[in-house]
Amino acid sequence: MTDFIAIDGPAGSGKSSVSKAVARKLGFGYLDTGSAYRALAWHVLDRGADTADADAVLAAVAEFPVRLGLDPDDRTVTVGEVDVTDAIREPSVSGAVSGVARVPEVREQVNTLFRSLVAEAPYPAVVVEGRDITTVVAPDAPVRILLTAAPEVRAARRAGELAGENAEAVAAALHKRDASDSAVVDFLNAADGVEVVDSTELDFTQTIDAVLAVIERIRGVHHG
Ligand SMILES: Nc1ncnc2c1ncn2[C@@H]1O[C@H](COP(=O)(O)OP(=O)(O)O)[C@@H](O)[C@H]1O
Ligand SMILES: Nc1ccn([C@@H]2O[C@H](COP(=O)(O)OP(=O)(O)O)[C@@H](O)[C@H]2O)c(=O)n1
């Protein structure tokens, strides 16, 4: 059985970059669950529909040929024949994604996909990051981490990535998305047994080391 290393947290807390680095370091797979929600939002928009329309979202998810890899060095995402890797990071998709994430049938369908990708993974473990991995997708995972950082620090990191975008607009969009998303699943408070890593005062390398320390401690305890 492939182990889940479950990591949740709000936007810009470092989930993707830190999880990827940890997976590389340990020779594990990496699954960015947010990219599935983003790809579905892209798919809804591509069909000329609105993600606020739950019926349109359900129609789109019924025909949603998404492909996600587990290689931490290849973040390619495709929908059918279309490579959407870059398009799903566009502000238009970020602004629309919470609409698809709030539809329960969508969550069930993508969760089934995530569990089967991990079950069939050619890795001893997969670092799976998102919002509800520690609580819904893999509540029994041996390692469960909530990665947090102060809101202004998260907004500044995301604005730094989106060069050319207005920093205040990026911050406002990020906080609005967190508010919508946290009404669906709680990723601001750690569930019982979930370890908190707060990266507010840590640089990137220190954050990776903090996550590795949690994994090594828990897996060390489990496997002697
Ligand atoms: N501890 C940290 N210190 C400084 N920058 C960081 C830290 N962790 C992540 N970053 C940077 O912040 C940005 C957002 O991180 P990302 O991994 O995309 O977050 P998330 O997946 O949670 O939205 C990236 O540019 C990343 O390199
Ligand atoms: N497990 C997950 C992962 C993402 N999502 C949704 O997908 C969106 C994009 O997730 P993401 O992880 O790519 O976002 P960032 O934190 O990278 O900005 C979130 O804003 C949520 O709406 C979710 O609902 N559950």
TrEMBL record:
Entry's EC annotation:
2.7.4.25
- Which SUPFAM superfamilies does this UniProt record tie to the protein? P-loop containing nucleoside triphosphate hydrolases (SSF52540)
Q: Which GO terms describe its molecular function?
A: ATP binding; CMP kinase activity; dCMP kinase activity
Gene Ontology CC: one annotated term:
cytosol
The main enzyme category here is transferase
Where is this protein found? Answer: Cytoplasm
Reaction catalysed? CMP + ATP = CDP + ADP; dCMP + ATP = dCDP + ADP
Name the UniProt record assigns to this protein: Cytidylate kinase
Organism encoding this protein: Microbacterium hydrocarbonoxydans
